[in-house]
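Minimal example, chain plus zinc ion.
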Amino acid sequence: MKRYLGIFLVVWLLLQGCGGPDRSNRLIVIDAGHGGHDSGAQSGGKKEKDVVLQIVKRLQRRLKREGYRVYMTRGSDRFLTLGQRTRIADRKDADLFISIHANAIANKSRFNVVEGVETYFLQKTRDAKSQRIAARENASVLKGQDALSKNVIIDSVLNGPKIIESNKLAIDVQHGMVKQLKRGYRDVKDGGVRPAPFYVLVGASRPSILVEVGYMTNPKERQRLFRADYQERIVDGIVEGVNRYFDNREKELEI
Ligand SMILES: [Zn+2]
């Protein structure tokens, strides 16, 4: 009997060691920005909608390998309104919403200077740079809406506790991306975590972030963005950040 107990204990310990954390109850909605007639930022003959779809497909594979359930708002080159994207997250009752974009600036004389990765979470802001970028990303959806109704929509979620969670998620993801990218690209610029009133994050009643994976208008970064190894490093960083975020939330619950 003792021998059987011993074998049982060994098998049980092995199973514990192999399993890792069970993430099958975590659903992450990942969103490739733009699509279809909306190309997003365009520079040097390349389109934002293409690079973000490539990255989101890689992200889907990696998150699934980590044990998460994953849903993509789009898996092909098709147009979705920003409202449709967050409604998908609501309908699926996702735990997290992660939107992937690539950045751009208008000032041509600064194309070679402005670069780096940035992560945004929803918050009203007076920061001029955040407002400029949000205005560009919002352009396709805010057309025709008056300022008052826009502000009502934004205000309705601004005071929710999800902002704090979104901020924490943004910090973990940004940290992970910069760490992983620096392993292969030491000069990568850490653009930091920023608050921004992106429409795509509005209405998502769950921790939601928008990642700007690099600048399409910077020739060096544009070239990197389409490289498989650069995309894999970005994805490694996002996954690392997501894992850390969930691990920390579980620790908070234990306390
Ligand atoms: Zn975009």
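The chain has one domain: 23-254. The domain at 23-254 is CATH 3.40.630.40 (Aminopeptidase).
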